[in-house]
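Appendix B, record 7
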Amino acid sequence: MKQYHSLSSRISAILPLAVLGLWASAAGVGRCRAEEPLKVETVAAAELKFSAKYPEAPGIFLTASRTNSNLTVTKAELVKVLDAAVAPMENAGGAAVKVEGAHAEKALQGRMDGILMWGPYQDLEPGVYLMVYRFRLDADPIPGSTCFADVCHKASTSSGERLAVEKLVQDQWVETAVPVFVPVKKAFEFRFWPGGNSFTVDRIYVYKVDPGKRAKPEPGTVIPLGLPVQGRPQVALSPHEPNSGQIDIAGYLPGTAIRCPYTGKMFLVP
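Structure tokens (predicted):
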């Protein structure tokens, strides 16, 4: 399955040096109940802990890790699974249907120019996460269009992945990972934007990860400064795509290098 960016570089790129090696509890995102049996497996050289309720979890994580053989995640824990078609997730006119190959009992099908799916604002404890979105393209793509999976705080994107829809294979499931660094405890929402195309969205898997060592930037790399938004110190605009929307920077210190969710390029917090 084709992915569009190096997962290891995306994970390491979003991490300030102070959080390297961080491994903490993620109780704030609604982990599996104690009565649900837990399993531990080694997947792509990482120790993965997950609920037996979601036997597909190792395969989902492996698909994400295969994007780069230098993946440095050493520990991972599945802390949340969200079915796109049922509460607490919400949608704009989509249909909950049984779909072959979906892991959820029913998946969400729909075509929208704007946002198709969103929800549910829930707290995440500080740490590093991979949010893996599972979806598929259902019809011929609109030429030149993109789809966008993002994680946001107070309606401003914190991290995301934008894919060229013409590169997707119709009726083939895709698992794309959105890396998120959480500097302070705050509530996040998960969203999917189909770009006017017809999609089926299955589930979102939330993994808490220990990313290991951070990749060093290339010598001579110049990172541009983000663009401040007047009267809104908790958000900024990307210097790479200033018209794509406001980016959540709450909890970051000025000068911290963070990843633009629209391009994957780095910029400094203003």
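Remarks on this record: The helical segments are 7-13, 57-65. The chain has two helices and 18 strands.
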